[in-house]
């Protein structure tokens, strides 16, 4: 079965939700560069201080910083059972550099799922998104499938829910433009490597998971 997966999609398409579902289902660790950067901002460490304003305005963090953060994360033991990358690689340079690093090793990327969703659905997914401050679980107050049972409280761990500082309409447009310009070219990059699978993500998170599972479980090794 496939172990190492990358998710590519516009902001708000459901990468984080899917990555968390795959983590629960297959014990593949969810690695989100966005989460790692937000943790650094929270801690106010060197990386956090450098990236805070970039995150708030929806601009990319430089590749050196991203690789420094990723190198540290990939050194942890929990990667052994496989991973789902959410938000990395984000441009061609990052993809090429990661391919170079991971070549002939157990951390090589095996499949890339591109989640397709009409642009008009993204705004409500972004503005309605809430995250658990304790376990990172993702909710959406506009989607009955993803609404917490008690307002503002995580169903899984009881942690309090918060809204990301970049989850507003204004920053969304900046992030979406950057996605089109810098991240979308990855689709052809992975198509050429024969790793790309396009998944319709417009029908909600459970439908998306169903389609991804079929592909994950179909491929044996
Ligand atoms: P995300 O949680 O994936 O939406 O990422 C939040 C923000 O973190 C992005 O808008 C970027 O500012 C930054 N970021 C996350 N991953 C990367 C990456 N691979 N390359 C550059 N910037 C990133």
Description:
The protein is α/β, with parallel strands linked by helices and 221 residues long. 47% of the residues lie in helices and 14% in strands. It has 9 helices and 8 strands. It has helices spanning 15-26, 33-43, 46-57, 63-74, 92-102, 119-127, 169-183, 185-192, 205-218; strands at 5-8, 29-32, 83-86, 111-116, 129-132, 138-140, 161-162, 196-200. The protein has a 5-stranded parallel β-sheet with strand order 2-3-1-4-8, with helices on both faces. Strands 6-5-7 form a 3-stranded antiparallel β-sheet. The longest helix has 15 residues, at 169-183. The protein starts with a strand and ends with a helix. It binds adenosine monophosphate. Adenosine monophosphate (AMP) binds at residues 11, 32-34, 37, 54-55, 58-61, 66, 87-88, 90, 94, 175. Adenosine monophosphate binds at residues 11, 32-34, 37, 54-55, 58-61, 66, 87-88, 90, 94, 175.
Strand order of the largest sheet: 2-3-1-4-8
User: How is the main sheet built?
Assistant: 5 strands, parallel
How much is the average pLDDT? Answer: 94
Q: Would you count the extended β strands for me?
A: 8
User: Span from first to last CA?
Assistant: 6 Å
Strand content: 5-15%
Q: What is the 3D form? A: globular
How many helices? The count is: 9
Give the % helix.
Answer: 40-55%
Class based on secondary structure composition and strand pairing: alpha/beta
Rg (C-alpha, Å): 17 Å
Ions, cofactors and other ligands present here are:
adenosine monophosphate
**SSE string:** EHEHHHEHEHEEEHHEH
Low-confidence stretches: none
């Amino acid at each position: 079965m496939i172990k190492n997966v990358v998710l590519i999609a516009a902001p708000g398409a459901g990468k984080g939700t899917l990555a968390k579902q795959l983590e629960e289902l297959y014990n593949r660790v969810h690695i989100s560069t966005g989460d790692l950067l937000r943790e650094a901002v929270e801690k106010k460490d060197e990386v956090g201080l450098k990236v805070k304003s970039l995150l708030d305005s929806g601009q990319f963090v430089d590749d050196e910083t991203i690789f420094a953060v990723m190198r540290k994360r990939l050194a942890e033991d929990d990667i052994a059972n496989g991973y789902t990358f959410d938000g990395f690689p984000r441009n061609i340079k990052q993809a090429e550099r990661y391919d170079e690093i991971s070549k002939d090793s157990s951390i090589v990327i095996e499949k890339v799922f591109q989640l397709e969703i009409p642009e008009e659905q993204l705004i409500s997914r972004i503005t309605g998104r809430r995250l658990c401050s304790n376990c990172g679980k993702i909710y959406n107050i506009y989607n009955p499938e993803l609404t917490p049972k008690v307002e503002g409280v995580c169903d899984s761990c009881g942690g309090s829910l918060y809204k990301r500082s970049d989850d507003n309409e204004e920053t969304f447009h900046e992030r979406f433009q950057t996605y089109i310009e810098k991240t979308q070219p990855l689709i052809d990059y992975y198509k050429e490597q024969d790793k790309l699978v396009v998944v319709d993500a417009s029908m909600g998170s459970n439908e998306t998971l169903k389609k991804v599972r079929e592909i994950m479980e179909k491929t044996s090794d």
